[in-house]
Amino acid sequence: MKTRVIALYLPQYHPTPSNDKWWGKGFTEWTNVGKAKKYFPGHDQPKVPADLGYYDLRLPESREAQAELAREAGVEAFCYYHYWFGNGHEELDLPFKETLRTGRPDFPFCLCWANETWYSKFWNMDGTVSKKPIAEQLYPGDEDIINHFNSLLPAFKDKRYVKVNGKLFFMIYTPLDYPEVSHFMNLWNNLAKENGLAGFYFVGHLVHGWEITPENVDKLMSLGFDAVNVAGLFRAIHKKRSIFARVVHKLLKRPYIMKYKDILPDIINENDNRADVIPTITPNWDHSPRSGASGVVVTGVTAELFKKLVKKALDIVCNRSDEERIIVLKAWNEWGEGNYMEPDLKHGKMYIEALREELDNYQK
Question: From its phi and psi, is residue 277 left (phi > 0), alpha (psi between -120 and 50) or beta?
Fold first, then answer.
């Protein structure tokens, strides 16, 4: 019995003109990763990549090596974050476009439209965020919706594109922020059929802890989504961030510290038993490379604890149809959030081996 693990993938690790302009010449996510510092005794920072090194996603060898590791882990596909801000404005599109153009790596893929405004952010110790927009997410109307579809049509027709029940898997990252999302989905489904495609399997993503509720799952399903994916780690963090932790955070000027074993029960919980909910597994979390002392740091992750989470997700989806037995892995390579599967100097292939072991155990 095979389970489909789809890993969210950040296509960031290469210089771009916009990042040069906003953050300085040559900036990539590795800039944040490399300058990370320890905020308390035992804090596991900075994270240092092992097998793949500080890779550059302009290089096909880097992309091929990532796919090989993903196969080793039992991951079926990468779900590339896709940035379309409206009026043809794209960012971080080179790695996926090169994957599409070259046919390499020969590894399945799908897309998650990260429909959020980008900000220059400064995290405050009181938990607030000061921010200035640098790339605004716009929804200009039907012409833009059609242009967006046509820009991705070669990807939708690629044999590597992930399908569920014959339909193209497409995730929308912040669907509750898009007032016309139902119209968007209807128009794209019509465009797909006009181009000989069966249509889309639309997945609405719930990412913010306070918005991950049964009521919002119902709302997304009523809007026409085929399934909802919940980022349960953030639900767990939101629930477990106690008043005591807030006081310690402010007094000591250090990140919120939470133990993986304490939040584990809430990363996947009873609300995820619904057939229309796709559970998410997350190997780790440490936002301090981006947000400094204002971030959240999860500590105490072990292979055994991660395997417990994987098994919980497998138990949730085991009775679903072959096509819809899906788990989202968040994420493959979010190094700036301490949220990655790729090998590092401290843990090696711990996450990769743990995921593979649990998948193999379930498929015996």
Answer: beta
